[in-house]
């Protein structure tokens, strides 16, 4: 049943007036009640620890020489998750790959948020031709199918004499760059609404500069929506990277990422014979993305005043 | 109405031009080309061929030549297939459309029902379970789900065919042929639907939650309508209308998703051809196909936009 | 004296919110007689709307009707099967709401929405239903009914929409019409028209009306009988003239004083001091005690009981309770 | 046409099939945690494959129990289904470029000559004779008919040959470079209506006159699928072959089968050509089914296919096929090889001693075994060991660290304080351009890094996308690079890589004697004489270290044992067996 009735009846009841809770504290409280979201948060923290602290505890190191004679060994006491084709410890690789994948997701998100919120805010604030140009640009990027363009950019930019170790940054930026229009639209919508509100007239009266108005007064008000989109786009970044890796255009070996680890096990025989190669990275992607998604969903519920119980 | 349609169509022109410029620029940057990958031809011959294909033109000439062709419905010449790009697209795209269409229908139907159910039972155990499941299928890379599906459904248990679109050598006719194709569609459709349905389900859930809180739902209930009528006639209709605009953006998503599944399930669609084209550096096929999808997206958006105006009485065109 | 159409007996509806249990309707009893207009008065959040929704059995989670009975024609509505209850809603008991702008479904035509109850409750054919719907539209005073039938809500003004809501509510000749602040969101002139319309309906069809309002002007104009609610409880109940002439409860008195009176210039309107108490933290006392001018020690110790006095006047206040003075 | 395999090979590299590797039977003990994994002892020699016992790495492994063939395969009494990656639908012998289109055209069209298992040409639809001055080739035809029943005549052959020289011909054959016919230039430039060097003598005889003698002309004319002029003539307009492209999916030829149906991306269905001049094929229906790397093995297993051309030769796959028991597996050396290219313009690599040191100092066997587990050989010449022109009378360059060090010392590269060799104040640091993802590089890079460190050379990998790499190589912008190349039956094509200024010679290798030998060989049609020339070429390439030759891997052909008669070699593809295969 809906909450409509509740809203029109019971919620007229004034909220408890114990402490004037800030919206953030309210959101946090709301978050804490969402068990699924909290679980996601905890899992995510564990995953970060696993990836960033784990390798320090491993007896192996990325600089270990490869030894093909020790390759494709099933899990054992020495190698808990076995070894890959060229004899590297899968557990260590999974952890290091996690660093890459998480980093890709986070940086891609930051790029997307930086571009998306700035352009969105500018478009929403200035309106007119600035808005038209920015939104047209967003349209263009949104209407180009992202996967082909990712593939092509990946190929085109490999022209830059790029060390494969640095290529992940490229991947991050491409993923980030292609995902800003969605956020820009959301932010623009919010800003269009906000700029008509009274506190903005106050800012107007104070004679603040545009930049200050946009970045100090307007944008902060869109933070909840940005946070939600940002969270979800981290998950998206991780998935996109893995698909690119499958096509051989993502993070390239020897730098491990979850995506390229799975795609290294690309034949059915490998799939059946050596599950330790693809199950660990697969499970890691799964856990991480689910965790981020449920957390993002929880955040959305918590930060969205409309969905308050 | 007609003027609205025309105006809306005219508005797409700058976007289309923008898209085409961006595409040509990007494609121009791609290293390697088809001709140079043939090791048996002399340098003179290679130069001759590149000239013939217009690969040596500076980028603005390339753009103008190509744009001129596009304006007349010619997307260029596939060097690899030695055919016009439109012929190649026509040869393979329908198989992709078939999958995309079925996936679209399935994923929307499922997403609507699940999303509605989940919204109606908000915060219940079912809602939590569905939320989790939805995120679960969204949380695996498409190729991985595809490979897993083949492993479990086609290799370990031979429930579905391993891949392809028809049983080779069977020469089925009529219904047998149709059933054969359907059988081969199962796995790719399941995988693509699973991937597609998650986001949509969330969308419908949120959208339904918004609608269910509206006053007119209370009115409908107060009329003594059955809950089913309230949800599906009164609430869903309101939730669906804004979703129409989503349809436009479904197109690139579906075709992009299909690229991976076609590759894995050996489905003879345009996606796998495109992937090959990239690897072979079949310049115009890459460019043509990408532009084709962009074009579909833009047109899809226009149609969605117009449909929205038809469907929503509040903005209905007079 | 007419029969009781509806009888609330010790109704309790609670809301389980994240901050605690809200007793939105707390042991409420009163009745509505056939053909009578009963007004329920109170501030926002006093539980008057929830009482109505409880009657319709449309309280939705986290709210729950947990005690008491609502007798309609001798049947307890609260124990009715959902199917039977559906047959009562919109058919025997109809309801109109405060926000005419949002209470109609924006994507369905007016005609669709008016004919809906006719089709399901009266089993009419589409054709008959349309005919009846057009009659109803005319009945509520909207000209060019046939054209309106095919329009969408956004094409109508607020007043017209509220008329349409009334038409929908009347479509099945209900025994009881619940009107939840039907005029609050409307212009004053429109308000008067809507109230006129409702009065006409009442006299024409002998429909009982349960009108929920916070506007004593509306009460004076419409009511036969008045129930005053405060913080989920009925604190006073009386025939309209009796109440206006002789308000007993300090809260009611406050309400009366807070009402501007025409031709009488006041420097300041009277306001009842203090705030509505936090519904979660209600103690075992008179909920009005903090704001009451006449607060006594007893008032903070024990809740007063609704007691019947002369002229069918009921009130829940220790001031009139001898027992109160004793203990 | 010969180039298709090369294309296939590049494609293979581009997609970089990750050849699954298996350490099965590896006796090496797992290293203790925390210690560096030991690399095999220095000087340990190649040759031994993992202690697997008798790993057959070449030839045919017969099915052990043909009766295990799946029922649905056995049920096909008149149809053979062969799996392969998708052909693109260019079914025209002069245009088909990717290997799978070539498979189809070879099945539908017949050519005058046909390649044998050792790479030599044998008469097929006809034969040829060379004139005294070696400039005139006379082709004679057998009595043969096209699948539509019309006879094959010299007119058809002339028509076919002429197409190669059309101005608008954009197929993969560089006809003029291989077979400079008299008058071809004039024809191409539109100055002549026909090519004066192509002369129909009588309906069974055709004379072709070349400007200069070229043994490569056979690679154009000998293997060109003959087009029936009465069918294709309608689509032919000099200077505008656009209509020819409409005929791609409606091929008509004189080959063993005719096209019944082409379902793009799915299958190519053939019917036996009852007019085939060597007698109608025994199998009435032949289907090429599109398969993918991921699942082609499963299709053989389920009986969906009777044969599969594209299962990569890895230990995993070999074992899996063996375990099917009903399938014959043919392992052939791939007609190509992998090598490390050196930029001969680089000052350091100009010194032969340095180049040799780089070969001696690299554990090639270790690398090759690491990648292919025995299913590949280390090679020392740029030729397949099954070719008639092959020689192994060359330096084997077995791993020899001391010798490598000595050579570098001699070359003036002295070890510096940091252990890195230097000369004239310059450190010896090699940037290694490598494509990624790539299975070979994955193994090669760590081993080479370590090997060369021992030599006092810093080895820095620079990994990139395959196409980017190719671009760099074309521009000469590299020092050292790993690549693989395909071979053709005619050893003469190697001139592209070894001759000064050769089209494939991106490494600036230049040797006057090699240039001379190639010229001599190209003007000689006698096999024995040519063999001697090539031998010398290979010896020079080996001695001079034109490239660091690495390996020749394996290709497979898997066939359900119910189909008999496949007898393939790296040169002779299964398509040539289609007229003779039988179902048991």
UniProtKB/TrEMBL annotation, chain A:
Residues 98-296 form the ABC transmembrane type-1 domain. PROSITE patterns: ABC_TM1. The keyword Cytoplasm does not apply. Its main location: membrane. SUPFAM superfamilies: MetI-like. It is found in: Cell membrane. Pfam families: BPD_transp_1, OppC_N. Keywords: Cell membrane, Membrane, Transmembrane, Transmembrane helix, Transport. The chain crosses the membrane at residues 36-57, 102-125, 137-156, 168-187, 218-239, 276-299. It is a multi-pass membrane protein. Belongs to the binding-protein-dependent transport system permease family. PANTHER family: D,D-DIPEPTIDE TRANSPORT SYSTEM PERMEASE PROTEIN DDPC-RELATED, OLIGOPEPTIDE TRANSPORT SYSTEM PERMEASE PROTEIN APPC. This is ABC transporter permease. It comes from Paenibacillus arenosi.
């Amino acid at each position: 049943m809906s909450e409509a009735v509740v809203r029109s009846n019971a919620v007229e009841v004034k909220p408890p007036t114990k402490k004037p809770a800030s919206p953030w504290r309210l959101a946090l409280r709301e978050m804490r009640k969402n068990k699924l979201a909290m679980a996601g948060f905890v899992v995510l923290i564990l995953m970060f620890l696993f990836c960033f602290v784990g390798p320090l505890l491993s007896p192996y190191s990325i600089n270990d020489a490869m030894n093909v004679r020790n390759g494709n060994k099933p899990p054992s006491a020495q190698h808990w998750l076995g070894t890959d084709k060229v004899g590297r410890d899968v557990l260590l690789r999974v952890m290091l790959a996690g660093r890459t994948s998480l980093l890709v997701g986070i940086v891609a998100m930051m790029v997307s948020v930086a571009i998306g919120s700035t352009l969105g805010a500018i478009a929403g604030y200035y309106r007119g031709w600035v808005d038209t140009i920015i939104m047209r640009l967003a349209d263009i990027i949104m209407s180009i199918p992202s996967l082909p363009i990712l593939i092509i950019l990946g190929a085109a930019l490999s022209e830059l004499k790029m060390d494969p170790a640095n290529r992940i940054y490229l991947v991050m930026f491409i993923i980030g760059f292609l995902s800003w229009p969605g956020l820009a639209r959301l932010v623009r919508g919010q800003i269009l609404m906000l700029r008509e509100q009274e506190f903005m007239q106050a800012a107007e009266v104070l004679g603040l500069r545009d930049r200050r108005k946009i970045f100090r007064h307007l944008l902060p008000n869109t933070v909840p929506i940005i946070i939600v989109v940002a969270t979800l786009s981290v998950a998206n970044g991780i998935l996109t990277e893995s698909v690119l890796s499958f096509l051989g255009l993502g993070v390239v070996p020897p730098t491990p990422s979850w995506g390229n680890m799975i795609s290294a096990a690309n034949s059915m025989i490998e799939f059946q014979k050596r599950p330790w190669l693809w199950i660990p990275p697969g499970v890691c992607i799964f856990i991480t993305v689910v965790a981020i998604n449920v957390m993002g969903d929880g955040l959305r519920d918590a930060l969205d005043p409309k969905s308050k119980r | 109405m007609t003027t609205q349609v025309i105006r809306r169509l005219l508005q797409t022109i700058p976007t289309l031009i923008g898209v085409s410029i961006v595409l040509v620029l990007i494609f121009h940057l791609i290293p390697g080309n088809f001709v140079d990958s043939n090791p048996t031809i002399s340098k003179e011959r290679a130069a001759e061929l590149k000239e013939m294909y217009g690969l040596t033109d500076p980028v603005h000439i390339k753009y103008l030549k190509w744009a001129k062709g596009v304006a007349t419905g010619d997307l260029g010449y596939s060097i690899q297939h030695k055919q016009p790009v439109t012929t190649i697209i026509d040869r393979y795209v329908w198989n992709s459309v078939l999958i995309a269409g079925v996936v679209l229908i399935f994923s929307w139907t499922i997403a609507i029902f699940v999303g509605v159910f989940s919204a109606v039972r908000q915060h219940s155990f079912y809602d939590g379970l569905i939320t989790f499941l939805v995120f679960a299928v969204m949380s695996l890379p498409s190729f991985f789900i595809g490979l897993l599906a083949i492993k479990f459904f086609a290799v370990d248990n031979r429930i579905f065919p391993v891949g392809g679109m028809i049983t080779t050598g069977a020469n089925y006719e009529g219904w047998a042929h149709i059933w054969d194709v359907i059988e081969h569609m199962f796995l790719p459709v399941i995988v693509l639907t699973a991937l597609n349905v998650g986001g949509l389900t969330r969308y419908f859930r949120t959208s339904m939650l918004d609608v269910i809180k509206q006053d007119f739902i209370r009115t409908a209930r107060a009329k003594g309508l059955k809950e089913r009528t309230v949800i599906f006639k009164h609430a869903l209709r309101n939730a669906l209308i804004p979703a129409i605009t989503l349809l436009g953006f479904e197109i690139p998503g579906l075709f992009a998703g299909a690229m991976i599944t076609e590759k894995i399930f050996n489905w003879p669609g345009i996606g796998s051809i495109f992937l090959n084209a990239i690897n072979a550096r079949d310049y115009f096929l890459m460019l043509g196909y990408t532009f084709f999808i962009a074009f579909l997206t833009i047109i899809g958006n226009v149609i969605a936009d117009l449909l929205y105006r038809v469907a929503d009485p509040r903005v209905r065109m007079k | 004296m007419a029969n009781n159409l509806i009888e609330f007996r010790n109704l309790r509806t609670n809301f389980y919110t994240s901050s605690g249990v809200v007793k939105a309707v707390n042991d409420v009893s009163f009745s509505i007689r056939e053909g009578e207009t009963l007004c329920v008065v109170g501030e926002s959040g006093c539980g008057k709307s929830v009482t109505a929704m409880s009657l319709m059995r449309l309280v939705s989670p986290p709210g729950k009707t947990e005690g008491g009975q609502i007798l309609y024609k001798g049947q307890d509505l609260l124990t009715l099967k959902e199917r039977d209850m559906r047959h009562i809603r919109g058919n025997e008991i109809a309801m109109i709401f405060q926000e005419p702008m949002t209470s109609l479904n924006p994507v369905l035509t007016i005609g669709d929405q008016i004919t809906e109850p006719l089709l399901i409750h009266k089993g009419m054919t589409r054709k008959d239903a349309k005919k009846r719907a057009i009659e109803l539209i005319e009945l509520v005073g909207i000209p060019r009914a046939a054209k309106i039938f095919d329009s969408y809500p956004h094409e109508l003004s607020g007043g017209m929409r509220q008329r349409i809501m009334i038409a929908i509510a009347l479509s099945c000749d209900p025994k009881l019409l619940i009107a939840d602040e039907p005029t609050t969101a409307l212009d004053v002139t429109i308000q008067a028209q809507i109230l006129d319309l409702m009065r006409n309906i009442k006299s024409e069809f002998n429909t009982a009306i349960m009108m929920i309002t916070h506007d004593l002007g509306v009460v004076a104009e419409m009511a036969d009988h008045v129930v005053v609610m405060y913080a989920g409880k009925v604190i006073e109940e009386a025939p309209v003239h009796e109440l206006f002439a002789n308000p007993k409860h300090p809260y009611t008195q406050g309400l009366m004083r807070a009402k501007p009176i025409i031709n009488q210039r006041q420097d300041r309107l009277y306001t009842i001091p203090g705030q509505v108490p936090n519904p979660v933290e209600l103690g075992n006392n008179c909920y009005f005690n903090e704001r009451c001018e006449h607060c006594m020690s007893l008032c903070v110790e024990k809740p007063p009981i609704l007691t019947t006095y002369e002229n069918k006047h009921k009130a829940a206040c220790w001031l009139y309770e001898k027992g109160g003075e004793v203990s | 046409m010969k180039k298709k395999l090369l294309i296939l090979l590049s494609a293979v590299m581009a997609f970089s099939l990750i050849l699954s590797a298996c350490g099965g039977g590896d006796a090496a003990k797992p290293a203790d945690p925390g210690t560096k994994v030991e690399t095999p002892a220095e000087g340990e020699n190649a040759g031994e494959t993992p202690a697997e016992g008798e790993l057959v790495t070449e030839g045919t492994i017969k099915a052990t129990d043909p009766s295990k063939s799946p029922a649905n395969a056995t049920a096909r009494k008149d149809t053979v289904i062969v799996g392969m990656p998708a052909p693109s639908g260019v079914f025209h012998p002069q245009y088909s470029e990717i290997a799978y289109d070539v498979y189809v055209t070879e099945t539908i069209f017949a050519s005058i000559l046909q390649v044998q298992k050792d790479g030599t040409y044998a008469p097929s639809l006809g034969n040829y004779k060379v004139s005294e001055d070696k400039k005139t080739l006379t082709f004679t035809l057998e009595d043969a008919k096209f699948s539509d029943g019309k006879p094959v005549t010299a007119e058809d052959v002339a028509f076919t040959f002429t197409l190669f020289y059309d101005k608008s011909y954009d197929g993969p054959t560089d006809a003029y470079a291989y077979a400079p016919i008299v008058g071809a230039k004039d024809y191409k430039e539109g100055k002549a209506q026909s090519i004066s060097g192509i002369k129909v003598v009588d309906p069974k005889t055709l004379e072709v006159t070349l400007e200069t003698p070229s043994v490569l002309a056979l690679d154009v004319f000998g293997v060109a699928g003959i087009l029936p002029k009465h069918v294709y003539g309608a689509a032919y307009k000099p200077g505008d072959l656009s209509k020819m492209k409409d005929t791609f999916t409606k091929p008509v030829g004189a080959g063993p089968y005719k096209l019944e149906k082409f379902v793009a991306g799915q299958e190519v269905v053939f019917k036996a050509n009852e007019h085939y001049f060597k007698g109608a094929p025994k199998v009435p229906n032949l289907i090429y089914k599109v398969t993918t790397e991921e699942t082609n093995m499963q299709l053989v297993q389920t009986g969906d296919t009777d044969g599969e051309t594209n299962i990569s030769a890895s230990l995993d796959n070999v074992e899996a096929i063996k375990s099917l028991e009903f399938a014959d597996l043919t392992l052939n050396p791939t007609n190509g090889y992998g090598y490390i290219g050196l930029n001969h313009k680089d000052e350091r690599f100009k010194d032969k001693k340095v180049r040799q040191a780089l070969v001696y100092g690299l554990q090639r066997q270790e690398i090759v075994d690491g990648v292919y587990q025995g299913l590949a050989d280390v090679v020392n010449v740029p030729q397949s060991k099954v070719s008639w022109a092959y020689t192994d009378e060359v330096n084997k360059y077995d791993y020899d660290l001391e010798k490598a060090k000595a050579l570098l010392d001699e070359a003036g590269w002295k070890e510096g304080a940091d252990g890195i060799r230097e000369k004239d104040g310059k450190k010896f640091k090699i940037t290694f351009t490598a494509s990624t993802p790539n299975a070979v590089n994955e193994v090669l890079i760590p081993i080479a890094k370590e090997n060369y460190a021992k030599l006092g050379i810093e080895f820095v990998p620079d990994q990139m996308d395959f196409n980017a790499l190719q671009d760099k190589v074309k521009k000469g912008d590299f020092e050292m690079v790993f690549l693989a190349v395909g071979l053709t039956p005619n050893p003469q094509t190697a001139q592209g890589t070894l001759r000064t200024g050769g089209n494939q010679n991106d490494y600036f290798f230049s040797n006057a004697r090699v240039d001379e030998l190639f010229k001599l060989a190209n003007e000689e049609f006698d096999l024995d004489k040519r063999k001697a020339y090539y031998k010398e070429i290979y010896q020079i390439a080996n001695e001079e270290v034109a490239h660091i030759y690495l390996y020749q891997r394996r290709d497979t052909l898997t066939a359900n044992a119910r189909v008999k008669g496949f007898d393939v070699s790296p040169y002779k593809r299964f398509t040539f067996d289609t007229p003779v295969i039988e179902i048991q």
